[in-house]
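Please describe our next protein:
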Amino acid sequence: MPYAGAKIGPAFSDDFYHKIYILPRTIELGNFTDTSKDFIVWNAYFNDRDFSVINTTAVAADDLTLTGNASGAMPGLSVYDYALDAGAAGSPALDVTYTWDFSGAVVDPVLVVLGQRVILLPWVARDKATKRLSWKTGVVKAYGQEQRRGLRRAPLQEISYRIHVPDQDRIDLESRLTDLTSLYAVPLWWLRQDVGVLTAGVTTIVMDTDYRFLQPGGLLYLYESTGLHEAKTIDTVLAGSVTLTSALTNNYTNAQAVATLACYAKNIGMTRRGEKINFASFDFTSTDFYELPADTYTQYKGLDVLLDPTVTVAAVPMQVVQSRVWRDNGIGPLGVGNKENRVRVQDTQRWIKADLEGRYKLEQWFNSRYGQRVPFYQPTWQKDFVVTADIGNTAAFFDVESTHKLAPFEIMLELNDGTQFFREVITKAVQGSGHRLNIDSAFGQAITAASIKRVCVLRLTRHAADSVTLNYQSPNITRAEIPTTTH
Protein backbone atom coordinates (compact mmCIF):
# COMPACT_ATOMS: atom_id res chain seq x y z
CA MET A 1 0.00 0.00 0.00
CA PRO A 2 1.54 3.36 -1.06
CA TYR A 3 2.27 6.03 1.48
CA ALA A 4 -0.27 8.81 1.78
CA GLY A 5 0.78 11.92 -0.19
CA ALA A 6 3.33 10.05 -2.32
CA LYS A 7 4.24 11.50 -5.72
CA ILE A 8 6.52 10.70 -8.64
CA GLY A 9 10.01 12.12 -8.10
CA PRO A 10 11.97 14.07 -10.72
CA ALA A 11 13.62 12.10 -13.51
CA PHE A 12 16.38 12.82 -16.01
CA SER A 13 13.74 13.91 -18.52
CA ASP A 14 12.93 16.87 -16.28
CA ASP A 15 16.35 18.32 -17.07
CA PHE A 16 15.14 19.07 -20.59
CA TYR A 17 11.37 18.77 -20.69
CA HIS A 18 8.44 20.31 -18.84
CA LYS A 19 9.78 23.81 -19.48
CA ILE A 20 9.55 26.66 -21.98
CA TYR A 21 12.77 27.75 -23.71
CA ILE A 22 13.74 30.99 -25.47
CA LEU A 23 16.97 30.72 -27.44
CA PRO A 24 18.80 33.00 -27.05
CA ARG A 25 17.34 34.49 -23.87
CA THR A 26 19.25 37.76 -24.32
CA ILE A 27 19.70 39.56 -27.63
CA GLU A 28 22.60 41.99 -27.69
CA LEU A 29 22.09 44.40 -30.58
CA GLY A 30 25.25 46.34 -29.69
CA ASN A 31 25.66 49.66 -31.49
CA PHE A 32 23.21 49.61 -34.39
CA THR A 33 21.37 51.78 -36.88
CA ASP A 34 18.84 49.20 -38.09
CA THR A 35 19.14 45.49 -37.60
CA SER A 36 17.23 42.21 -37.34
CA LYS A 37 17.70 39.18 -35.09
CA ASP A 38 16.06 35.75 -35.13
CA PHE A 39 15.25 33.58 -32.12
CA ILE A 40 13.07 30.59 -31.24
CA VAL A 41 10.60 29.57 -28.52
CA TRP A 42 10.36 25.85 -27.71
CA ASN A 43 7.45 24.32 -25.83
CA ALA A 44 9.18 21.40 -24.09
CA TYR A 45 5.96 20.22 -22.49
CA PHE A 46 4.30 17.14 -23.97
CA ASN A 47 0.92 18.84 -24.21
CA ASP A 48 -0.45 22.07 -25.72
CA ARG A 49 0.00 25.29 -23.77
CA ASP A 50 -1.93 28.54 -24.20
CA PHE A 51 0.22 31.65 -24.23
CA SER A 52 0.38 35.35 -25.00
CA VAL A 53 3.37 37.65 -25.46
CA ILE A 54 3.58 40.61 -23.10
CA ASN A 55 5.85 43.59 -23.71
CA THR A 56 6.74 44.18 -20.09
CA THR A 57 8.54 47.49 -20.71
CA ALA A 58 5.91 49.06 -22.99
CA VAL A 59 8.43 49.69 -25.76
CA ALA A 60 7.38 52.23 -28.39
CA ALA A 61 6.15 50.86 -31.69
CA ASP A 62 8.96 52.55 -33.66
CA ASP A 63 11.65 51.06 -31.41
CA LEU A 64 11.18 47.34 -32.03
CA THR A 65 8.95 45.10 -34.12
CA LEU A 66 8.33 41.51 -33.02
CA THR A 67 7.25 39.16 -35.80
CA GLY A 68 5.81 35.73 -34.99
CA ASN A 69 2.94 34.10 -33.12
CA ALA A 70 1.79 36.48 -30.42
CA SER A 71 -0.81 34.24 -28.74
CA GLY A 72 -2.76 30.99 -29.01
CA ALA A 73 -2.29 27.32 -28.19
CA MET A 74 1.28 26.14 -28.76
CA PRO A 75 1.43 22.39 -29.49
CA GLY A 76 3.55 20.21 -27.25
CA LEU A 77 7.23 19.86 -28.25
CA SER A 78 6.78 22.45 -31.00
CA VAL A 79 9.14 25.31 -31.94
CA TYR A 80 8.03 28.78 -33.03
CA ASP A 81 10.33 31.06 -35.03
CA TYR A 82 10.44 34.79 -34.26
CA ALA A 83 12.18 37.84 -35.72
CA LEU A 84 13.01 41.07 -33.94
CA ASP A 85 13.52 44.19 -36.09
CA ALA A 86 15.05 47.41 -34.77
CA GLY A 87 14.81 50.41 -37.09
CA ALA A 88 16.90 53.55 -37.38
CA ALA A 89 14.28 55.68 -35.59
CA GLY A 90 13.45 55.33 -31.93
CA SER A 91 14.88 55.59 -28.44
CA PRO A 92 18.68 56.06 -28.11
CA ALA A 93 19.05 53.13 -25.69
CA LEU A 94 17.14 49.84 -25.63
CA ASP A 95 16.63 47.78 -22.48
CA VAL A 96 13.47 45.85 -23.30
CA THR A 97 11.90 42.65 -21.96
CA TYR A 98 9.24 40.45 -23.54
CA THR A 99 7.47 37.79 -21.44
CA TRP A 100 5.78 34.70 -22.89
CA ASP A 101 2.89 34.12 -20.47
CA PHE A 102 2.13 30.37 -20.63
CA SER A 103 -0.78 28.80 -18.81
CA GLY A 104 0.36 26.35 -16.19
CA ALA A 105 4.07 27.01 -16.69
CA VAL A 106 6.16 27.10 -13.53
CA VAL A 107 8.38 29.86 -14.93
CA ASP A 108 7.36 32.12 -17.80
CA PRO A 109 10.31 32.68 -20.18
CA VAL A 110 11.63 36.23 -20.64
CA LEU A 111 13.51 37.69 -23.61
CA VAL A 112 15.84 40.62 -22.86
CA VAL A 113 16.83 42.98 -25.70
CA LEU A 114 19.74 45.38 -25.20
CA GLY A 115 21.31 47.86 -27.60
CA GLN A 116 22.33 51.41 -28.38
CA ARG A 117 20.84 53.08 -31.43
CA VAL A 118 23.36 55.08 -33.48
CA ILE A 119 22.45 58.35 -35.22
CA LEU A 120 23.92 59.07 -38.65
CA LEU A 121 25.49 62.42 -39.59
CA PRO A 122 25.60 62.27 -43.42
CA TRP A 123 28.03 65.13 -44.09
CA VAL A 124 31.54 64.40 -45.30
CA ALA A 125 34.37 65.76 -43.16
CA ARG A 126 36.70 68.33 -44.60
CA ASP A 127 40.25 67.21 -45.40
CA LYS A 128 41.80 67.94 -42.00
CA ALA A 129 40.78 65.65 -39.15
CA THR A 130 42.47 64.30 -36.04
CA LYS A 131 42.34 61.11 -34.00
CA ARG A 132 43.67 61.14 -30.45
CA LEU A 133 44.68 57.90 -28.74
CA SER A 134 44.81 58.01 -24.93
CA TRP A 135 46.04 55.45 -22.42
CA LYS A 136 46.41 55.61 -18.63
CA THR A 137 49.67 54.69 -16.90
CA GLY A 138 50.57 54.87 -13.24
CA VAL A 139 54.28 55.83 -13.08
CA VAL A 140 56.00 55.47 -9.69
CA LYS A 141 59.56 56.83 -9.66
CA ALA A 142 62.17 55.87 -7.09
CA TYR A 143 65.80 56.86 -6.62
CA GLY A 144 67.24 54.00 -8.64
CA GLN A 145 64.38 52.82 -10.83
CA GLU A 146 60.73 53.30 -11.74
CA GLN A 147 57.62 51.15 -11.92
CA ARG A 148 54.80 51.57 -14.45
CA ARG A 149 51.33 50.04 -14.31
CA GLY A 150 48.79 50.13 -17.10
CA LEU A 151 45.39 51.47 -16.02
CA ARG A 152 43.64 51.17 -19.41
CA ARG A 153 43.86 47.99 -21.46
CA ALA A 154 43.42 49.71 -24.84
CA PRO A 155 43.39 53.33 -26.04
CA LEU A 156 40.42 55.64 -25.82
CA GLN A 157 39.80 57.15 -29.27
CA GLU A 158 38.73 60.75 -29.81
CA ILE A 159 37.85 62.03 -33.29
CA SER A 160 37.69 65.71 -34.30
CA TYR A 161 36.76 67.20 -37.65
CA ARG A 162 34.77 69.96 -39.40
CA ILE A 163 31.97 69.69 -41.93
CA HIS A 164 30.36 72.12 -44.33
CA VAL A 165 26.60 72.19 -43.90
CA PRO A 166 24.55 73.79 -46.71
CA ASP A 167 21.91 76.20 -45.43
CA GLN A 168 19.03 73.81 -46.18
CA ASP A 169 20.74 71.09 -44.11
CA ARG A 170 21.41 73.09 -40.96
CA ILE A 171 17.99 72.41 -39.42
CA ASP A 172 18.40 68.73 -40.28
CA LEU A 173 21.73 68.67 -38.44
CA GLU A 174 20.31 70.44 -35.40
CA SER A 175 17.42 67.96 -35.28
CA ARG A 176 19.94 65.11 -34.99
CA LEU A 177 21.58 66.78 -32.00
CA THR A 178 18.55 67.03 -29.73
CA ASP A 179 19.84 64.40 -27.26
CA LEU A 180 23.60 64.34 -26.68
CA THR A 181 23.35 61.13 -24.65
CA SER A 182 22.77 59.42 -28.00
CA LEU A 183 25.47 57.59 -29.92
CA TYR A 184 26.62 58.92 -33.29
CA ALA A 185 28.09 57.05 -36.23
CA VAL A 186 31.45 58.72 -36.91
CA PRO A 187 32.97 57.59 -40.21
CA LEU A 188 36.76 57.60 -40.53
CA TRP A 189 36.37 59.71 -43.65
CA TRP A 190 40.08 59.70 -44.51
CA LEU A 191 39.78 55.93 -45.15
CA ARG A 192 36.77 56.00 -47.48
CA GLN A 193 36.90 54.18 -50.79
CA ASP A 194 34.68 53.84 -53.84
CA VAL A 195 32.73 50.57 -54.02
CA GLY A 196 30.57 51.43 -57.05
CA VAL A 197 27.13 49.94 -57.69
CA LEU A 198 25.38 48.24 -54.78
CA THR A 199 21.93 46.66 -54.82
CA ALA A 200 19.44 46.56 -51.96
CA GLY A 201 19.36 43.15 -50.33
CA VAL A 202 23.06 42.29 -50.65
CA THR A 203 25.04 41.40 -47.53
CA THR A 204 28.57 41.19 -48.99
CA ILE A 205 30.53 44.27 -50.09
CA VAL A 206 33.55 43.76 -52.33
CA MET A 207 36.19 46.26 -51.19
CA ASP A 208 39.81 46.69 -50.15
CA THR A 209 40.08 45.62 -46.51
CA ASP A 210 43.82 46.08 -45.97
CA TYR A 211 44.73 48.75 -43.38
CA ARG A 212 41.14 50.06 -43.28
CA PHE A 213 40.45 49.55 -39.53
CA LEU A 214 37.53 47.23 -40.27
CA GLN A 215 36.54 44.80 -37.52
CA PRO A 216 33.72 42.31 -36.89
CA GLY A 217 31.04 43.91 -34.74
CA GLY A 218 32.00 47.38 -35.93
CA LEU A 219 30.05 49.60 -38.30
CA LEU A 220 30.44 50.07 -42.05
CA TYR A 221 29.05 53.29 -43.48
CA LEU A 222 27.72 53.28 -47.06
CA TYR A 223 27.46 56.79 -48.48
CA GLU A 224 26.48 58.34 -51.79
CA SER A 225 24.83 61.61 -50.75
CA THR A 226 23.19 63.25 -47.72
CA GLY A 227 19.91 61.70 -48.88
CA LEU A 228 21.28 58.23 -49.72
CA HIS A 229 23.30 56.50 -47.04
CA GLU A 230 23.13 53.86 -44.30
CA ALA A 231 25.30 52.13 -41.72
CA LYS A 232 25.43 48.38 -41.14
CA THR A 233 27.07 46.13 -38.57
CA ILE A 234 30.02 44.09 -39.86
CA ASP A 235 29.80 40.33 -39.46
CA THR A 236 33.09 39.16 -41.00
CA VAL A 237 36.08 40.80 -42.65
CA LEU A 238 37.96 38.85 -45.33
CA ALA A 239 40.66 39.79 -47.79
CA GLY A 240 38.76 41.79 -50.41
CA SER A 241 35.27 41.71 -48.93
CA VAL A 242 33.11 42.55 -45.92
CA THR A 243 29.99 40.61 -44.91
CA LEU A 244 27.23 42.46 -43.05
CA THR A 245 24.84 41.15 -40.40
CA SER A 246 21.83 42.51 -42.31
CA ALA A 247 21.08 43.32 -45.95
CA LEU A 248 21.43 46.76 -47.52
CA THR A 249 18.25 48.83 -47.61
CA ASN A 250 19.13 51.13 -50.51
CA ASN A 251 20.33 50.92 -54.11
CA TYR A 252 23.55 52.80 -54.95
CA THR A 253 25.14 53.76 -58.26
CA ASN A 254 28.38 55.26 -56.90
CA ALA A 255 28.71 54.33 -53.23
CA GLN A 256 31.60 54.91 -50.89
CA ALA A 257 32.36 52.64 -47.92
CA VAL A 258 34.26 53.50 -44.76
CA ALA A 259 34.88 52.06 -41.29
CA THR A 260 32.82 53.85 -38.64
CA LEU A 261 33.03 54.26 -34.88
CA ALA A 262 30.12 54.59 -32.48
CA CYS A 263 30.85 57.73 -30.44
CA TYR A 264 29.41 60.18 -27.98
CA ALA A 265 29.53 63.85 -28.95
CA LYS A 266 31.87 65.66 -26.57
CA ASN A 267 31.89 69.17 -28.05
CA ILE A 268 29.86 70.62 -30.92
CA GLY A 269 30.23 74.08 -32.40
CA MET A 270 28.78 75.91 -35.39
CA THR A 271 29.84 78.94 -37.39
CA ARG A 272 27.43 80.74 -39.71
CA ARG A 273 28.68 82.91 -42.57
CA GLY A 274 26.15 84.94 -44.44
CA GLU A 275 22.83 83.41 -45.36
CA LYS A 276 23.84 80.01 -46.70
CA ILE A 277 27.25 78.97 -45.37
CA ASN A 278 27.53 76.95 -42.16
CA PHE A 279 30.45 75.08 -40.67
CA ALA A 280 30.14 72.62 -37.80
CA SER A 281 33.01 71.25 -35.72
CA PHE A 282 32.78 68.06 -33.68
CA ASP A 283 34.78 66.36 -30.95
CA PHE A 284 33.68 62.74 -30.53
CA THR A 285 34.72 60.09 -27.99
CA SER A 286 34.44 56.46 -29.00
CA THR A 287 32.57 54.05 -26.75
CA ASP A 288 34.92 51.18 -27.59
CA PHE A 289 38.48 50.55 -26.47
CA TYR A 290 39.78 49.04 -29.69
CA GLU A 291 43.29 47.59 -29.78
CA LEU A 292 44.94 46.87 -33.12
CA PRO A 293 46.57 43.45 -33.59
CA ALA A 294 50.26 43.61 -32.74
CA ASP A 295 52.94 43.82 -35.42
CA THR A 296 56.34 42.09 -35.22
CA TYR A 297 59.40 44.18 -34.38
CA THR A 298 63.14 43.56 -34.13
CA GLN A 299 64.02 42.60 -30.56
CA TYR A 300 67.05 43.30 -28.37
CA LYS A 301 67.24 42.01 -24.80
CA GLY A 302 63.58 41.06 -25.01
CA LEU A 303 62.37 44.55 -25.97
CA ASP A 304 61.30 46.05 -29.30
CA VAL A 305 63.73 48.26 -31.23
CA LEU A 306 62.36 51.27 -33.10
CA LEU A 307 64.07 51.06 -36.49
CA ASP A 308 62.11 53.74 -38.33
CA PRO A 309 64.55 56.60 -39.06
CA THR A 310 61.74 58.88 -40.26
CA VAL A 311 61.30 60.05 -36.66
CA THR A 312 64.36 62.22 -37.30
CA VAL A 313 63.22 63.82 -40.57
CA ALA A 314 62.80 67.16 -38.81
CA ALA A 315 64.76 68.88 -36.08
CA VAL A 316 64.61 66.85 -32.86
CA PRO A 317 64.55 69.03 -29.72
CA MET A 318 66.34 67.36 -26.83
CA GLN A 319 66.68 68.06 -23.12
CA VAL A 320 68.85 66.51 -20.44
CA VAL A 321 66.97 66.49 -17.12
CA GLN A 322 67.20 65.03 -13.64
CA SER A 323 64.67 65.03 -10.84
CA ARG A 324 66.15 67.28 -8.15
CA VAL A 325 65.26 69.21 -5.04
CA TRP A 326 66.43 72.81 -4.59
CA ARG A 327 67.32 74.20 -1.17
CA ASP A 328 67.00 77.95 -0.76
CA ASN A 329 66.38 79.47 2.67
CA GLY A 330 66.79 83.00 1.39
CA ILE A 331 69.97 83.82 3.34
CA GLY A 332 72.44 80.94 2.95
CA PRO A 333 74.08 79.38 -0.09
CA LEU A 334 71.84 77.70 -2.65
CA GLY A 335 71.88 73.89 -2.50
CA VAL A 336 70.62 71.11 -4.72
CA GLY A 337 70.08 67.38 -4.19
CA ASN A 338 69.12 64.61 -6.58
CA LYS A 339 65.88 62.64 -6.27
CA GLU A 340 66.99 59.96 -8.72
CA ASN A 341 70.43 58.55 -9.50
CA ARG A 342 70.52 59.30 -13.23
CA VAL A 343 69.80 61.94 -15.81
CA ARG A 344 67.21 61.43 -18.50
CA VAL A 345 67.39 62.39 -22.15
CA GLN A 346 64.05 63.70 -23.40
CA ASP A 347 63.25 64.36 -27.03
CA THR A 348 60.27 64.33 -29.40
CA GLN A 349 59.51 61.78 -32.09
CA ARG A 350 57.94 63.31 -35.19
CA TRP A 351 56.32 61.02 -37.72
CA ILE A 352 55.16 61.60 -41.31
CA LYS A 353 53.39 58.80 -43.19
CA ALA A 354 52.18 59.08 -46.76
CA ASP A 355 50.25 55.85 -47.37
CA LEU A 356 47.60 53.62 -45.80
CA GLU A 357 50.06 50.94 -44.73
CA GLY A 358 52.39 53.42 -43.05
CA ARG A 359 49.49 55.05 -41.22
CA TYR A 360 48.18 51.69 -40.02
CA LYS A 361 51.61 50.46 -38.86
CA LEU A 362 52.23 53.76 -37.07
CA GLU A 363 49.06 53.27 -35.06
CA GLN A 364 50.08 49.66 -34.40
CA TRP A 365 53.36 50.93 -32.94
CA PHE A 366 51.57 53.37 -30.66
CA ASN A 367 49.17 50.63 -29.54
CA SER A 368 52.06 48.31 -28.68
CA ARG A 369 53.62 50.99 -26.41
CA TYR A 370 50.45 51.32 -24.25
CA GLY A 371 51.20 54.97 -23.57
CA GLN A 372 54.11 55.26 -21.13
CA ARG A 373 54.05 51.63 -20.02
CA VAL A 374 56.14 49.56 -22.46
CA PRO A 375 59.77 50.67 -23.04
CA PHE A 376 61.74 50.15 -26.24
CA TYR A 377 65.20 50.73 -27.65
CA GLN A 378 65.75 53.68 -29.99
CA PRO A 379 68.91 54.50 -31.97
CA THR A 380 70.00 58.13 -32.16
CA TRP A 381 70.60 57.60 -35.93
CA GLN A 382 73.70 59.81 -35.73
CA LYS A 383 77.41 58.93 -36.12
CA ASP A 384 78.15 58.95 -32.40
CA PHE A 385 81.36 56.92 -32.77
CA VAL A 386 83.94 56.82 -35.59
CA VAL A 387 85.50 53.37 -36.06
CA THR A 388 89.24 53.62 -36.73
CA ALA A 389 90.15 50.00 -37.54
CA ASP A 390 88.71 46.89 -39.13
CA ILE A 391 86.91 44.45 -36.81
CA GLY A 392 87.69 40.73 -36.77
CA ASN A 393 84.92 38.16 -36.84
CA THR A 394 85.82 36.88 -33.36
CA ALA A 395 86.82 40.23 -31.84
CA ALA A 396 84.73 41.24 -28.83
CA PHE A 397 85.86 44.85 -29.17
CA PHE A 398 86.29 47.63 -31.72
CA ASP A 399 88.42 50.78 -31.79
CA VAL A 400 86.99 54.28 -32.15
CA GLU A 401 88.18 57.85 -32.02
CA SER A 402 88.39 59.33 -28.52
CA THR A 403 84.97 59.49 -26.83
CA HIS A 404 83.73 60.81 -23.50
CA LYS A 405 80.84 58.33 -23.30
CA LEU A 406 81.00 56.33 -20.07
CA ALA A 407 80.48 52.55 -20.13
CA PRO A 408 78.31 50.56 -19.86
CA PHE A 409 75.91 51.51 -22.68
CA GLU A 410 74.24 49.94 -25.74
CA ILE A 411 75.08 50.68 -29.36
CA MET A 412 73.77 49.95 -32.85
CA LEU A 413 76.31 49.29 -35.60
CA GLU A 414 74.84 49.62 -39.09
CA LEU A 415 76.59 48.61 -42.30
CA ASN A 416 76.23 50.29 -45.68
CA ASP A 417 74.16 47.31 -46.88
CA GLY A 418 71.61 47.87 -44.08
CA THR A 419 72.74 45.06 -41.76
CA GLN A 420 72.35 46.08 -38.12
CA PHE A 421 73.99 44.77 -34.95
CA PHE A 422 73.05 45.55 -31.36
CA ARG A 423 75.62 45.17 -28.61
CA GLU A 424 76.34 46.32 -25.08
CA VAL A 425 79.63 48.11 -24.46
CA ILE A 426 80.87 46.61 -21.18
CA THR A 427 84.04 48.64 -20.62
CA LYS A 428 86.12 51.30 -22.35
CA ALA A 429 89.93 51.50 -22.46
CA VAL A 430 92.45 53.92 -23.96
CA GLN A 431 93.85 52.63 -27.25
CA GLY A 432 96.48 54.91 -28.80
CA SER A 433 94.90 58.30 -29.42
CA GLY A 434 91.39 56.83 -29.19
CA HIS A 435 89.47 54.26 -27.21
CA ARG A 436 88.73 50.55 -27.39
CA LEU A 437 85.14 49.60 -26.68
CA ASN A 438 84.80 46.09 -25.25
CA ILE A 439 81.44 44.53 -26.14
CA ASP A 440 79.45 41.65 -24.69
CA SER A 441 79.88 39.43 -27.78
CA ALA A 442 81.63 39.43 -31.16
CA PHE A 443 79.79 40.52 -34.31
CA GLY A 444 80.38 37.10 -35.86
CA GLN A 445 81.76 38.42 -39.15
CA ALA A 446 84.70 40.47 -40.32
CA ILE A 447 83.76 44.13 -40.73
CA THR A 448 85.90 46.75 -42.45
CA ALA A 449 85.81 50.32 -41.22
CA ALA A 450 84.85 51.50 -44.71
CA SER A 451 81.74 49.25 -44.73
CA ILE A 452 80.28 50.87 -41.60
CA LYS A 453 77.55 53.45 -42.17
CA ARG A 454 77.15 54.48 -38.54
CA VAL A 455 77.72 53.46 -34.94
CA CYS A 456 75.27 55.19 -32.63
CA VAL A 457 74.01 55.04 -29.07
CA LEU A 458 71.01 52.74 -28.52
CA ARG A 459 68.87 54.24 -25.77
CA LEU A 460 66.34 52.45 -23.59
CA THR A 461 63.34 54.74 -24.01
CA ARG A 462 59.64 55.04 -23.28
CA HIS A 463 56.94 57.50 -24.25
CA ALA A 464 56.70 60.43 -21.87
CA ALA A 465 52.97 60.98 -22.50
CA ASP A 466 49.85 58.82 -22.40
CA SER A 467 48.26 60.35 -25.48
CA VAL A 468 49.19 60.98 -29.09
CA THR A 469 47.30 62.86 -31.80
CA LEU A 470 47.33 61.73 -35.41
CA ASN A 471 46.68 64.57 -37.85
CA TYR A 472 45.13 63.53 -41.16
CA GLN A 473 46.07 66.36 -43.49
CA SER A 474 44.93 64.74 -46.74
CA PRO A 475 43.54 61.35 -47.77
CA ASN A 476 47.08 59.93 -47.42
CA ILE A 477 49.32 62.26 -45.34
CA THR A 478 49.41 61.60 -41.58
CA ARG A 479 51.52 63.47 -39.03
CA ALA A 480 52.07 62.68 -35.37
CA GLU A 481 54.49 63.53 -32.60
CA ILE A 482 55.04 62.31 -29.06
CA PRO A 483 57.63 63.11 -26.37
CA THR A 484 59.97 60.37 -25.17
CA THR A 485 62.30 59.95 -22.22
CA THR A 486 65.10 57.54 -21.48
CA HIS A 487 64.19 54.81 -19.02
The chain is about 5% helix and 50% strand. The first strand starts at residue 20 and ends at 23. The chain has a mean pLDDT of 89. The first helix runs from residue 167 to 175.
